Structure formats: C-alpha cells, structure tokens
C-alpha cells in the first residue's frame, strides 16, 4: 500500500436504507469527514423496522440503555424496555440532530446497482441513474413480510393485516381477532390485545419458550440523574453488554448457561396452571434454538378466558374465519399475520451486479454469504450493514452497526489517502471465513433440532456462531491485505 496518491475529490457514497444501520453509518461517515453521501430511503421517514412495525404491544426486548448508539446515549428513556414508537422517535431524533434529512432522498427506492467502469451505477425505481464510488447497503433483514399462502385467505370477509404493516384505520373494538404466529411479534400482540377485544385466538404451529422479565418505568429523578451524569449511561450500557455476553455463551456452547436458561424458562412455564394448556405451550426443543421470546405478560394473557390457544394446524380460511385440520371453524372478524419475514432476502429484490456481470443472485445461489458480514468477492467497493451472518440472535443491532461502520469508514479513509481505487475480499478469504462458521455451527443451540428463520437452505444458522465480543474484535482490527483484491489509483479508468 505504499503507492498512495492524494485525492482532490471526496468519494461519492450511496447509502441504501435509513434505518438503524443507515443512520449509524451516515453519522460515522460525517464524523470521519465524509460529507458527500446520499441516503436513499424508499419510505417517507427514518427508522427502518421501527418505522414499519407499529402493531399494538410492540416493545423491544433488549433494554433501552443497551439498544441505542454509543455516540447518542439517551438519558430520556421512559422505561427499562422501550416501546416501538419510543425507539422510532429516538432514531428520527438522532438522524435529525445530525442533519441527515438534508442528505436523504425519501420516497426513493433503489432498484439496482451495477459496477461499471470502476464505479457503481445506481438506478432508482423512478428511473434516475447516478454514479457512486461506494455503495453501502443498510437495508436490514427483517423487512420483507412473510405472507403465508393459506388457502382461502383472500376470501376472508374481515381485514387481514401483517404485523409489520399494521393498519391503524381499523377499529379493533368489538372484533374477534385471530393471530397467526407465536414468535416475538405474535406473543406481544396477544399480550396487548387480550382484554381489549372480545376474543383473541392464537394459532400456534410451534410452541415457544418464554424468558420472564419485568418492564418498569424510569422516574423523573432517574432521568435527571442520567442527564447530569452521562457516565451512568455508559456504565449501564457496559453492564448490559456484560449480561448479553454471558447470555451469548449459552447460545454458542452447551454448558451451564444454556442449562440455566432452560431451567428459567421451564420454571416460568409453571405459572400456566391448566395442565392441558401447559402441555400445549411446552416446546419440544431446547430453549434459544428459536429466537428466545422475552415477555412479562404472555402467560397471563394466554390464560385469560377470552384468549384461546389453537394448536390444530390451519387447514384453510373461509369468509367467516379459520378452519383448522380437525374441521372446526374459528369465527373471526380480523386476522393478523404475525408470521415473520423473509430474513434471507437482505437487500433483494434490488438487482446488484458486480464485476464481469456477476449478479448477487448468482453469488448467493447457495444462500447469503459474505466476508466478515460486510463485503463480497466480485463486488468492489460494496459494503453491507447487518449482512449475512451479522445477526447475533438477541444482541442489539445498534452495536453491530457501529462496529461494521467502523470497518467501512476505515476502508474509506484508505481510499481518501489514495491507497486503492477498488477493494473486495478474495474468494479464498470468503470461503475460509464461511467454512470456519460452518464448522462452529454444530455447537450452537440453533442446530439442536428446531425450525427457525435463523436457518439457511443448508440447515445451518445464518448467524455469527461466536460471541459478539469476538466479532467486534475481528471487525475493528486492521484488515489483513492478503484477504483482499485491491486495484490501485494508477489503474483508474
Ligand atoms: P418469527 O419469529 O419468524 O415467527 C413467525 C411465527 O409465525 C412463528 O410462530 C411461525 O411458526 C409462524 N408461522 C409462519 N408461517 C406460518 C403458517 N403458514 N402457519 C402458521 N404459522 C406460521 O417472526 P416474528 O415474531 O415477527 O419475529 C421475527 C423477528 O423479529 C424476531 O425473531 C426478532 O428478531 C424480531 N422482533 C423483535 C422484537 C423485539 O422485541 N426486539 C419484537 C418482534 C420481533 P413456526 O415457529 O412453526 O415456524
């Protein structure tokens, strides 16, 4: 890297997505003096998943003091676990404080990006075409709603909504509501709807282990103290980080922590007093194999007389409700699909084409793969935030986005210093990295015999199989030059 040439022009940078990771990266760029970037956002506001998800009862299951950016610690959190709207407001505030709205094109969907003559040609849905030196995909992975193909669903007389597309114009009063799905979303929805409507029917395909918790508000005094002593916020962040690091040990190795969590969730289930209901709610797999659901309200809600748990499979839907495999019609006035997301799509259906016409679909024919979660061979100057194997189970994505932004900014600084023109990881490095993760997968809890969105086509988890701390260390270290293909400034076309 000795043939550095100083540059006269800053890099042109496109960030796709203005959610957690888009905001985080944009701020990191600004702080490093990169101001010539454009954020493309197909929706009308900041916030990503926290903008899209507005269903009743949405609460983040990671404590507020940890689910935030370290560069924008918020002393004003109203409770231990923040609600969806509070997190969305926080993200909008951070974005506005950093004047990101001035660099964001709302209502502008990126359709594709093609690497051509040493730069990226970015095309929007409106047909605009622009060239950038770098493309940073901050599109998240929980944003394409999974709408199950249940026979007869279009014939249902009442509204059918996906949890991530809640329709607030629908008056819930007096409605018998069916909730399909028992993940974090389904359990939160049932907990919130119970008692608010005449009947809630929860359709469960697979039972979930539930980790108990207690949510509590922060008093005015607590907020004042946190405002006056910012170090307290840092300490609280650090404390949560330690707890989550310990929890992650249970995810990645069998052992005492895994057994302890199993004991806690089994004990929590004991609050369900009816033996038949308890039997139905007992999963047949280990705790944490699926993403662990955290709730202080679900078991109380599901034991209410106006809540019914249905474990018979759904056969079809009629005008009047859901018919289960035993032939029973569950009469309903509204159906909620809490059926999750296509988490393996990442930035697709955006059409991304790298060098020699290689498309992202071709590169990911066997499933999403990346180098260290952020880069792809044959896709020079292309970075991903929360890309393949970056999700860390219950670990906050704010922390992952910060660490990945650090790596991306590091490369941009080297570009600015004239060290290279384009960079992409080698196939060998990427294959080696993915092989190591595959080898580590069997000791993780995610492969202990359950179905979940964590698993890819090959049945292996598409998650980082080690501790979050190990990833931070990896992504914050100096990249090893042997792992990359760099083209030099002299060869610029
Ligand atoms: P999910 O965990 O993927 O759960 C989807 C649910 O729908 C599962 O119970 C699944 O059953 C069921 N389902 C899917 N298709 C079905 C069908 N055709 N018939 C019957 N049931 C069907 O989705 P999610 O609950 O929306 O959560 C997704 C992720 O979002 C979470 O894992 C988490 O990362 C995030 N999230 C976080 C929070 C938070 O508090 N931080 C809150 C909500 C969501 P099976 O289990 O049998 O597949």
Automatic annotation (TrEMBL):
Write the protein's name: NAD(P)/FAD-dependent oxidoreductase
Keywords assigned by UniProt, alphabetized: FAD, Flavoprotein, Oxidoreductase
Q: Which Gene3D superfamilies match?
A: FAD/NAD(P)-binding domain (3.50.50.60)
Record-stated family: Belongs to the FAD-binding monooxygenase family.
Top-level division of the source organism's lineage: Bacteria
Task: Output the PANTHER family linked to this UniProt entry.
Answer: FAD_NAD(P)-BINDING DOMAIN-CONTAINING PROTEIN-RELATED, L-ORNITHINE N(5)-MONOOXYGENASE-RELATED
Q: Which organism is it from?
A: Nocardia acididurans
Q: Keyword Plastid: yes or no? A: no
Keyword Ion transport assigned: no
């Amino acid at each position: 890297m000795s043939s550095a040439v100083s540059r006269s022009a800053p890099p042109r940078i496109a960030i796709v997505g203005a959610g957690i990771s888009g905001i985080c990266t944009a701020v990191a760029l600004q702080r490093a003096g990169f101001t010539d970037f454009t954020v493309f956002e197909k929706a009308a506001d900041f916030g990503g998943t926290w903008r899209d998800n507005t269903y009743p009862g949405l609460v983040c299951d990671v404590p507020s003091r940890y689910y935030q950016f370290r560069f924008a610690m918020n002393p004003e959190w109203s409770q231990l676990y923040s609600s969806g709207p509070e997190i969305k407001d926080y993200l909008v505030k951070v974005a506005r404080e950093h004047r990101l709205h001035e660099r964001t094109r709302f209502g502008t969907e990126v359709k594709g990006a093609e690497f051509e003559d040493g730069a990226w040609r970015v095309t929007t849905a409106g047909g605009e075409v622009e060239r950038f030196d770098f493309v940073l995909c901050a599109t998240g992975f929980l944003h394409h709603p999974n709408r199950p193909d249940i026979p007869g669903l279009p014939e249902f007389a009442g509204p059918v909504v996906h949890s991530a597309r809640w329709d607030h114009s629908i008056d819930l009063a007096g409605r018998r509501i069916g909730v399909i799905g028992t993940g974090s979303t389904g359990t939160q929805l049932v907990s919130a709807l119970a008692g608010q409507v005449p009947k809630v029917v929860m359709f469960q395909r697979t039972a979930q282990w539930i980790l108990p918790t207690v949510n509590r508000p922060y008093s005015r005094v607590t907020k004042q103290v946190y405002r006056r002593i910012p170090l307290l916020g840092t300490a609280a962040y650090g404390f949560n980080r330690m707890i989550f690091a310990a929890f992650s040990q249970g995810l990645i190795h069998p052992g005492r922590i895994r057994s302890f969590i199993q004991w806690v969730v089994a004990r929590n289930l004991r609050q369900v007093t009816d033996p038949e209901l308890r039997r139905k709610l007992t999963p047949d797999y280990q705790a944490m194999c699926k993403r662990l659901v955290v709730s202080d309200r679900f078991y109380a809600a599901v034991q209410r007389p106006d809540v019914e748990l249905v474990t018979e499979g759904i056969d079809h839907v009629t005008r009047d409700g859901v018919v289960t495999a035993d032939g029973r019609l569950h009469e309903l006035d509204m159906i909620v699909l809490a059926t999750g997301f296509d988490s393996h799509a990442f930035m697709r259906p955006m059409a991304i084409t790298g060098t020699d016409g290689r498309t992202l679909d071709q590169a990911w024919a066997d499933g999403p793969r990346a180098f260290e979660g952020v880069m792809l061979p044959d896709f020079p100057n292309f970075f991903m935030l929360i890309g393949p194997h970056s999700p860390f189970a219950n670990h906050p994505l704010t922390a992952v986005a910060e660490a990945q932004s650090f790596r991306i900014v590091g490369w941009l600084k080297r570009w600015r210093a004239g060290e290279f023109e384009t960079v992409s990881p080698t196939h060998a490095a990427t294959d080696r990295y993915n092989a190591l993760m595959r080898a580590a997968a069997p000791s993780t809890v995610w492969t202990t015999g359950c179905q979940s969105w964590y698993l890819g086509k090959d049945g292996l988890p598409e998650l980082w199989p080690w501790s979050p701390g190990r990833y931070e260390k990896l992504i914050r270290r100096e990249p090893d030059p042997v792992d990359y293909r760099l083209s030099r400034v002299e060869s610029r076309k």
